[in-house]
Amino acid sequence: MAKKFPQTNYKDITKVAKKLGFYLLRQGKGSHEIWRDKNGRYTTIPKHGSKSIKRKTLKAIIDDLQITASDFLKILHKK
């Protein structure tokens, strides 16, 4: 059986994005933020506070960050 993507929130996603060199570029539509890195890669992260991000949305963000789900968890729990 395939491993499910982790359930996470805005704070955790931005923590990983910052560790990968992404920064907040601008506020998008509504409660969404556009994050970018120095190489020009970007992703849109929904800012819904402590509310969980849907798994499909998280998969798209992880794909934009060009990492795997297991890499995401390793980076998140790394101090």
TrEMBL record:
Species of origin: bacterium (Candidatus Gribaldobacteria) CG10_big_fil_rev_8_21_14_0_10_37_21
Assigned keywords, A-Z: Endonuclease, Hydrolase, Nuclease, RNA-binding, Stress response, Toxin-antitoxin system
Matches recorded under InterPro entries: HicA_mRNA_interferase (IPR012933), HicA_sf (IPR038570)
SUPFAM superfamilies in alphabetical order: YcfA/nrd intein domain (SSF54786)
Transmembrane segments: none
Domain of life per record: Bacteria
Protein name: Type II toxin-antitoxin system HicA family toxin
Similarity comment: Belongs to the HicA mRNA interferase family.
Record Gene3D superfamilies: Hypothetical protein (3.30.920.30)
